[in-house]
TrEMBL record:
Keyword tRNA processing carried by entry: no
Family matches, as Pfam families: Beta-lactamase
Highest taxon, organism lineage: Bacteria
The keyword Signal is assigned to this record: yes
Boundaries of every Beta-lactamase-related domain copy: 147-464
Keywords from the named record: Signal
SUPFAM superfamilies with a match to the protein in the record: beta-lactamase/transpeptidase-like
Stretch forming the signal peptide: 1-18
Name of the protein: Beta-lactamase family protein
Amino acid sequence: MKNFLDRFLKVLFLSALAALIAVSCSKTDGPGGDDDPDDGTVPPQWACTLKSISFAPKDNPGLTATCSHRLLAGTYYVTIPIGVPLNNLKATFNVSDGAKVEIDGKAMTSGVTPHDYSKLVRIKVTSMDGSASAYYYVNVQNGIDKIDKLVYDFMEKYSIPGISVSIAHKGKLVFARGYGYADKDNYERLEPNYMLRLASCSKPFASMCIMRLLDEGKLKLTDRPFALGGVLYEQFPDHKANFEQMTIRSFLEHTSGINQAAKFDPMFDNNITKQLSNIETIEYVVKNFDSNYAPGEKYQYSNFGYCVLGRVVEAITGMPYEDYLKQAVLEPAGAKNIRVGSTGLANRLPNESVYYSQDGTNGYGNDMKRLDSCGGLIASTPDLMRMACALDGQDDRPDIFPQYILDLMVTPSTAYRYYALGWRVGHSLYPGAAYHSGNLAGTATMWARNYNGDTHCAILCNSRSYLNQSSGSFDDALYVLLSRVMATGNWPDQDLFPEFE
């Protein structure tokens, strides 16, 4: 009887163990990752692990070295050199002993069976005895190893689901890549043509609108919008007297005297103004707040000042800000994938990324229409390169402004030598470059043009980390990432602009 009971309990234990392993190994969706290690905890006949995937030169004549994977947040990423087609590659699969590999129901033999890896691939690994299976996502893209490693390291350290990177050199789009996911929950790959929020990288566009009006003689930098006869005087007649001294230049240079650091940022921090439209926000601020210094005296970054500039554009042109931006700036540069972003996940626009909050922040807490001219735009990185090439003063592609306007935009203010008219300047990491950064919850951005005279780059992230924020770790790391990417050099002899018309 005892022997029978022992045998019964042993069978019961093994059955329970098999059921447990089947549950952990049978994944109907989502990346499997290396979660079933063959370390003795899983009987060999039940193991269904994808340990690695690579592409070897002996199996793929276009390669000169083996391309191995990088496992990041459950997805296997592989970089294939630029110029090597992805639609007929033969992968080397390192899986559990005796396990079988399938893609789209087709059996795959390691190093033998070709497959199209140009899109995100879902791989099924089935155990030796067929009782368990797991699914894994593999993202194979053409790229540059040095850049890809920098980006993947950044994504891993700061938990960024998706990043878009584009580089232009001497008038050509030489590199355009989406890394990771635009929608990680639905495994929607972030493609280079996807649009992401610009946050404060929207400010150079407000400056460009003002520069267009300046070049056409419709305003001067010394104009005072709130003064008697100014373009906003009648729209906001009830205002404190100190606003009458603020000039267009002072708003562009962040020297208007509205000190958001000492008070609050009316575009974000105040429970009253955050619920208002941009017009209502200006009405509230000009009635209730005094400036802290005379216009032009001191630099103090002001989102509110760029909200005012958007309303100046509307008052002069009689057009909504976005419409004038499109007509006067974007269309002349050939940029079609730049616009005011959506508000709320449910209103996500076609080819717009999802945004991922961290540390309890709300990535969908802002009305992007309200932020239009100070931080509300979205763009693809190839179109940011179009804009940079249209502003670089080079002969490779036509500029949309005369040289005196291009020079004016990057001339530092007398109050602060690191900010000009809508552009940051003078950073030691970016020799010769005009640039801007931006951040919102769920968004982090960098955009630079004229680095060393002929190189432009944009990096847009669909999340923002607050890791070690007290030391500025994330912000500093993003600045460094941009500089290292731009310093790569030896760019491919190609122009990708026609692919993103």
